[in-house]
Structures are given as C-alpha cells and as structure tokens.
Design brief:
It is built from 8 helices and 7 strands; from the N terminus they run αββββαβββαααααα. By secondary structure, the chain is an alpha+beta fold. The protein folds into 2 domains: 149 residues, Nucleoside Triphosphate Pyrophosphohydrolase (Alpha-Beta Complex); 143 residues, no CATH class. A hairpin with an 8-residue loop joins β2 and β3. α5 runs parallel beside α8 and α6 packs antiparallel against α8. The radius of gyration is 30 Å and the shape is elongated.
C-alpha cells in the first residue's frame, strides 16, 4: 500500500518508521555502504535499506528492499538476523523544518555467492566497500552503521569456538594451583628434611618459591583470558536477544539483609572469587619458601 508524501510526513511526525537495513558483506569481510542521495542522512555513507510498508509482511518487505536497493533476488530466510537498532535524525525526506525521523531497524546480513557489478542509484549516488577501520576514519560514514561492523567480529561458528576456549581457560584456572601444590609438597618435603644436605634443601626451597610465584602469575593469566572470553560471549548473546549464559553470576545480595547470621556469612563467603583465595594461598607458599631460604638453620 503506497501513501502520499504528505501522509508519510504525518506518520513521521507522530510515530517511528519500521525499516530493514541490509548489511551486504563480501568474502574479505568488508561491508557495502552507499552515499545517500536523500534526507535523512543525506551525503553520508550508509547501508542499503528501506521502510516496511503498511500491510507488507517481513518476507515481502525484505525481498522488495533487497531488489530495489541492491538489485538482488534474495529471501529473508537466506539472511542472518543481526539485531534491532534505533536511529534518530533531526531531518526528514521532505526537509520540512522541525520534523525529525525516528527509525526502528531490523538489520539483516547477507553474503551472496555472486555480488552484482553495479547497484541501483535511486537512493545512493555511489557505493564503496569498507572495513571497520576505514569506516571509523571516514568522517562521512554515518555513525549509526558502526554497530554493524561490531557485529561482524563474531559469527555463530566463532561463538562456539570461543565458548570452548573459555571452558578450556576455566579448567586451566583450577588445574594450575592443584599441579603447583603437588610440586610444592614434594619440594617442601625436601626443604624441611634435616637429613638432606643444605645445598639440596636450599635448591628445593628456591624451586618452591619460583614455582609458587610462577603458578600465581599463570593463575591470573588464565583467569584474565577466561574473563575476557566471557565478556565477548555475553555481548554476543545480548545482541541476539538470547539468555546471556556467560554473564557474571553473583550470590543473592538480599540474603545479606537476613537476620540469620549463617545466611549472611554464607553469602559473604560465596561472594569471594575463588581464584583470589587460591592466588593468596600460592603467595603464602612463596612466602614460606622465602623464609626457609632466609633462615635455613631455623628449620633443621
């Protein structure tokens, strides 16, 4: 259903427009942007797209916009839904003063096997492929397209890989102190044995100190990698509107207000990050090894 310009202007005055943006991506990971002919966002680089018409279903709207804007015969089920975005402009397509345009945008990414050599010019006077760094450096690139580049950083396959890597780092966090304590138990047995020569005890205490410090550093490194992966994965989940299973989970703070001392104490203990406890424990072992090195005769 087509409406007149004046009818559309009345809609713009009173309600947001719902539109579809198409993120066309090539094999190099670049995104196609067009230099807009019309307001809003005239003379800025933006992705192709268009509003959804009254009584038009999403599938039909997507196919029409893909054909009108890019000359592509593409269906919505062939595209990947990126997310819902919101754009606001102070201008409108008729350049009527004091009437801004508010868009609610459904963004879809497509990566066709064959990309046209030429694109329609009714909405964009020129086209160009951009990388994320090129887009940020170009002052004519509309800032509303930046999130589309951010969403290219992680695909579904990469999400699975990162999830597996996070699990791996999480396991390494807890293997580190266990292996370290096993080694230190052996070294301290020698360092505290009066029947062993002073040189052997000194060497064992030195190795125990080095092992404790190195293990503490390795524990923090694995924890850092695990945490950074969790942040990336949580953002990916939130962008797609799925349950953020990688978000940080903390004990119920309302229990701290309980009159029960045990509930308060339990919540406080649960709130202490376990890796910090193990980190301190490793430093204590390093301190004990250092004391043995400084005062070897006290332990004979």
């Amino acid at each position: 259903m087509k409406i007149s310009d004046q009818q559309l202007l009345e809609v713009i005055k009173n309600t947001p427009l719902v539109s579809i943006d198409i993120i066309l991506k090539n094999n190099e990971g670049e995104i196609l942007l067009g230099l807009r002919n019309n307001e809003p966002a005239k003379d800025t680089w933006f992705v192709p797209g268009g509003r959804i018409r009254k009584d038009e279903d999403l599938d039909s709207a997507f196919e029409r916009i893909a054909n009108d804007e890019l000359g592509l015969n593409y269906t919505r089920d062939q595209a990947r839904f990126v997310g819902i975005f919101e754009n606001k402009y102070d201008t409108n397509f008729l350049k009527v003063p004091d009437v801004g345009t508010h868009y609610i945008i459904l963004a879809y990414e497509i990566k066709p096997s064959k990309i046209p050599m030429n694109f329609p010019t009714n909405q964009h006077q020129n086209y160009r492929w951009f990388t994320r760094s090129e887009a940020i450096k170009n002052s004519k690139v509309n800032t509303y397209v930046y999130p589309y580049f951010e969403n290219q950083n992680l695909t579904d396959a990469q999400y699975r890989v990162l999830n597996a890597r996070r699990d791996s780092f999480n396991q390494l966090v807890w293997r580190t102190p266990v292996l370290s304590l096993t080694a230190q138990a052996f070294l301290f047995t020698i360092a505290l044995n009066p029947l062993v020569s002073p040189i052997a005890r000194t060497m064992s205490a030195s190795l125990a100190f080095i092992t404790a410090i190195a293990s503490a550093q390795l524990l923090l490194k694995h924890r850092f990698n695990e945490r950074e992966h969790a942040v990336i994965l949580e953002e990916f989940e939130r962008q797609r509107g799925i349950n953020p299973i990688n978000q940080k989970i903390t004990p119920d703070s309302t229990l701290k207000e309980s009159k029960c001392t045990w509930d308060y104490l339990r919540t406080w203990i649960e709130g202490i990050p376990s890796y910090k406890i193990w980190f301190v424990l490793l430093l204590i072992f390093a301190l004990f090894a250092l004391i043995i090195l400084i005062f070897p005769t006290k332990f004979v």
